[in-house]
Design brief:
CATH architecture of the largest domain: 3-Layer(aba) Sandwich
Mean pLDDT: 90
Radius of gyration: 22 Å
CATH class of the largest domain: Alpha Beta
Catalytic activity: ATP + H2O = ADP + phosphate + H(+)
Structural class: alpha/beta
CATH topology of the largest domain: Rossmann fold
GO molecular function, one term: hydrolase activity
Number of helices: 14
Helix content: 25-40%
Strand order of the largest sheet: 4-3-5-2-6-7-1-8
Bound molecules: adenosine-5'-triphosphate
Subcellular location: Mitochondrion
Low-confidence stretches: none
Keywords: ATP-binding, Helicase, Hydrolase, Mitochondrion, Nucleotide-binding, Transit peptide
Number of strands: 18
Protein name: RNA helicase
Length: 410
């Protein structure tokens, strides 16, 4: 694990240009990178959410730029014709293909404790002549430090926000009746979304569209269309933090229902980056609202919002890493009878890393490994199952993983 720069021979044999597009939300970073991608003879878009991968896939195809789709749940690959472009979630990035252009969105996610490894893999392993990295300026220093180990220069394009974002000096005073047309209220639990939708519809007479991560992409696109269409009768959006990354919606004002979120262990204050991303959805360039606004539902939360929005963000320190299947195979060779979940634990304890990297947590992988332990699988298959982006907090998903795994067992 000490020299990830040596892991991807194909990428090391490719002369790559690394171009960063950095700036605040709604500054046109992704737009500029995507303009380049759509003219490429071959290319890939790697997004942080399947919703975004799907949006890009739809947008390219409807503009006549043929594009395939690869996400954990969905593969739409045309075999009848040459398709130059692929839109995928970053975990599904095709590292075995030689490409002209790759766009890796939300590059600051490289420091995410669980998913960061996927951005690191894409950065280290893409065999593309041009790699466009879009995201927050906090990533510049880390990307440069990693690229030094690859003998690659980094070009940096900095952007300014295209339309103003104002912080309100009043909250909604806890009263949903203060909701207006064009508002998007952001909440952090799926149950909360439907309760809130019902409450708002009852108290205000506005109809609400809803968007959250687990929604099927077609339904999400339909909900976004309803909200964006001023004549649809759906004037308010109730959304989870899934709207925080990249999506372009006609939002006048973002309202934080709360400034805290349950992170799987405890209720914690929202992270600075997350708050800025979500607030930044208001007043998107070339939408119906030239100026965006952000506020909170509760009066007591408003000073927190102001404080967080004024907090400068620290530069990222290190990038997530996860062992490749061959690294795990070599390790397993030394400990032949050890159950896979324990093997992952041992690996986590023993791995030595260069200071530019940290080991992504194996929490989810270990949980899947325990669930499918009694299936007699080849190690690469087990590795694939355990690294799949399955929501392990959903018991039905975990149960189904076992069912899907059973026919793969030898
Ligand atoms: N030069 C341009 N011409 C037309 N539209 C543009 C241009 N630049 C950006 N836009 C539009 O402005 C909106 C915001 O741009 P974009 O999504 O690229 O911002 P971003 O900086 O990547 O934002 P975020 O980080 O919030 O996702 C999009 O709807 C995009 O299509």
């Amino acid at each position: 694990m000490r020299r990830p720069s040596e892991w991807h021979i194909g990428a090391r044999a490719t002369r790559r240009r690394i171009i960063m597009h950095v700036g605040p939300t709604n500054s046109g970073k992704t737009y500029n990178a995507m303009q380049r991608l759509q003219t490429a003879e071959s290319g890939v878009y790697c997004g942080p959410l399947r919703l975004l991968a799907h949006e890009v896939y739809e947008r390219f195809n409807s503009a006549g730029h043929l594009c395939n789709l690869i996400t954990g749940e969905d593969r739409r690959i045309r075999e009848d014709v040459y398709v130059p472009l692929t839109s995928c979630t970053v975990e599904m990035v095709p590292l075995n293909q030689k490409l002209e252009v790759a766009v890796v969105d939300e590059i600051q996610m490289i420091a995410d404790p669980s998913r960061g490894w996927a951005w690191t893999h894409a950065l280290l392993g893409l065999q593309a002549k041009e790699i466009h990295l879009c995201g927050e300026p906090t990533a510049i220093d880390l990307i440069k430090r990693i690229c030094e180990t690859l003998n690659e220069e980094v070009e940096v394009n900095e952007y300014e926000r295209l339309s103003p974002l104002q912080l309100a000096d009043k909250s909604l005073n806890g009263n949903l009746k203060n909701i207006r047309k064009g508002d998007c209220i952001v909440t952090f639990s799926r149950e909360g979304i439907f309760g809130l939708k019902q409450e708002i519809e009852m108290q205000t007479g506005y109809r609400c569209a809803v968007i959250y991560g687990a929604l099927p992409p077609e339904t999400r696109a339909e909900q976004a269309r309803l909200f964006n269409d001023p004549n649809s009768g759906y004037d308010v959006l109730v959304a989870s933090d899934a709207i925080g990354m990249g999506l372009n919606l006609n939002i006048r004002r973002v309202i934080f229902e709360t400034m805290e979120k349950f992170d799987g262990k405890a209720v914690r204050p929202l992270q600075t980056s997350q708050v800025k991303q979500i607030a930044g959805r208001a007043g998107r360039f070339q939408t119906a609202y030239a100026v965006g606004e952000a506020t909170t539902l509760e009066k007591s939360d408003l000073p927190k919002l102001h404080r967080v929005m004024a907090t400068p963000q620290d530069n990222l320190k290190s990038a997530g890493l996860q062992p490749t299947v061959s690294t795990i195979e070599q390790f397993a060779h030394q400990l032949p009878r050890m159950p896979y979940s324990q093997l992952l634990g041992q690996f986590e304890d023993m791995a030595k890393l260069d200071g530019r990297y940290f080991m992504c947590n194996f929490k989810d992988a270990k949980q899947i490994a325990e669930r499918i332990e009694d299936l007699d699988m080849l190690l690469p298959d087990r590795y694939m199952f355990c690294t799949s982006p399955a929501n392990v907090r959903d018991l039905i998903v975990v149960k189904n993983l076992y069912k899907v795994g059973a026919p793969v067992a030898v």
